[in-house]
Specification:
alpha+beta
């Protein structure tokens, strides 16, 4: 399972926590708005019903109603005058509520009713006072002509007032001249048994709170956008150096190149320290690698000539005086010749290693069959070296575009190792073919095999397995073979079991 990056992990957690916080804020805000809306609705219908209960007027036809000037001031509520039995005397109530509100009113009672998919808040309040200004106007109109309107108004009041009928008749007919014509208390007693009902529709009332909610959610959306932009910006500033370091390290695994550096563009101290330390480490590694390459090239160049001179002098002595020299001298010359060949092979490998480490190194590719290269290498091996060992070829289509000189070195290393570590008289199998766009050459011996703990390190330069099979080597052959394969975009694999032998497979791209 692929592990997340530190920056992505922290960024994801931050986003999750921020989202939880926003959701919590929205839920809390919605609940608060709902409660505030309900409380405001209660307060509104209660206040308006109470106000209306003090602004009752008697119309010309004797009907009780709420003062029109007050009704004009109402913004959300519908007001109606009802009897104690719930019968509507005057006013407007939504039609869908008439059946729902047919029950008797409850003084100071607040309730909510759902009708026709809407929610209504209702408050009933006992009718208390006539509106004085309009009441005086109504009563004055009846009194200024001693009955111009009072007979009609008084007659209706007799029907409605109930408890004040007798006194009203006396005032209107003049039978009780001692009673005041416009007694407010007497008129207010006519309102006994009447209620004011205030009705408020939630959909009409929530407009103000809807605007508040819209503003809040717009602010949250803007906050999210700002947070995302700021988060992306911080992510890039913080993650860029770390990501570049990760990419460079990954490239070093695939292709060692210590020339890459990370630019410090972060705002954070920790990232700056990491970036500077990484760049200094790359500087040091690049310097060490450069010194090693220069050393390898200089040593191989300086040793090439004297070793060639020593080898040629030994061969000259063997040709001129080989038969005349004592046996011990001939053996010494043979050892000198063999060791000079060994050192010369090491120098050649060092030169190839140094050559491929150069920045301007380029492959000189041409298409050729790997089986042709392998047969050419096998033909060059002397019979004395073979020691009775034989090659068995198993060829298939194996053409590939390669640098022939380099691949021949790699193939030679694999075949020489197989010859060197196979028992005399054994058969060395060579296979070739193509699989998944890669041409392969497989060399299989019947030697003693390689220990499992050494398999992961045999391709390291100068690494030597602690056994007799590496006594004649310097630990550069397999490392050079792997480097050649990697320069072509291929690889070398090994399958070995102690006591049964080893199989090395060189894989190179077809194109």
């Amino acid at each position: 399972m692929k592990k997340p990056t530190i920056v992505r992990y922290l960024g994801t957690r931050t986003v999750i926590y921020f989202a939880i916080m926003l959701i919590g804020m929205c839920v809390l805000f919605s609940y608060t708005i709902s409660r505030a809306q309900l409380d405001a609705a209660k307060q509104t219908v209660s206040i308006e019903s109470r106000r209306a209960s003090r602004h009752i007027v008697k119309l010309d036809d004797g009907t009780l109603a709420v003062d029109q000037e007050m009704l004009d001031d109402l913004e959300f509520c519908d007001i109606a005058v009802i009897t104690s039995a719930g019968e509507i005397v005057s006013g407007d109530i939504p039609e869908e509520l008439e059946k729902e509100l047919s029950e008797a009113p409850a003084d100071e009672g607040f309730r909510s009713v759902r009708a026709d998919g809407k929610v209504y808040y209702i408050c009933d309040h006992r009718a208390m006072h006539f509106h004085r200004e309009h009441g005086e106007h109504s009563r004055g109109s009846g009194g200024k002509a001693d009955g111009e309107h009072s007979s009609g108004s008084g007659g209706k009041a007799d029907d409605i007032g109930g408890a004040g009928t007798e006194k009203s008749d006396q005032n209107q007919t003049g039978n009780d001249p001692g009673a005041p014509e416009d007694d407010p208390g007497e008129m207010d007693r006519q309102l006994k048994g009447y209620y004011i009902r205030a009705v408020l529709c939630k959909d009409d009332f929530k407009t103000v709170y809807h605007n508040i909610q819209l503003f809040f959610y717009s602010f949250v959306a803007l906050l999210v956008i700002v947070f995302v932009i700021a988060g992306v910006w911080l992510y890039r500033r913080a993650a860029r150096p770390v990501r570049e370091m990760c990419d460079d390290v990954q490239k070093l695994v695939e292709d060692p190149d210590y020339s890459g550096r990370v630019e410090n563009t972060s705002l954070f101290y920790e990232t700056e320290v990491m970036t500077n330390a990484y760049n200094k480490l790359m500087d040091r590694n690049e310097k060490l690698i450069s010194q090693q390459e220069e050393f390898n090239e200089n040593v191989s160049h300086e040793l090439k000539t004297p070793i060639a001179v020593i080898r040629s002098e030994v061969e000259l002595l063997q040709d001129l005086y080989g038969k005349e020299l004592p046996e011990e001298a001939r053996e010494s010359l043979s050892v000198m010749h063999k060791q000079s060949d060994r050192i010369n092979a090491m120098i050649t490998e060092l030169r190839y290693m140094a050559k491929m480490d150069r920045e301007n190194f380029a492959l000189n590719k041409e298409e050729i069959a790997l089986s042709d290269i392998a047969e050419s290498v096998c033909d060059d091996i002397e019979d004395v070296t073979l020691g009775g060992r034989k090659f068995a070829y198993h060829w298939d289509q194996d053409d590939a575009a390669v640098d022939v000189a380099l691949v021949m070195v790699a193939v030679r290393n694999l075949i020489i190792n197989a010859v060197k570590y196979s028992p005399e008289g054994s058969i060395i199998d060579l296979f070739s073919g193509t699989i998944d766009g890669m041409a392969f050459l497989k060399v299989s011996d019947k030697g003693e095999g390689i220990a499992e703990e050494d398999l992961d390190r045999i391709f390291e330069p100068y690494y030597q397995v602690k056994s007799e099979r590496n006594s004649d080597g310097f630990g550069l052959g397999l490392a050079l073979t792997m480097k050649i394969a990697e320069k072509h975009g291929g690889t070398v694999t090994v399958d070995s079991e102690q006591g049964k032998g080893s199989t090395f497979t060189l894989m190179l791209p077809v194109k």
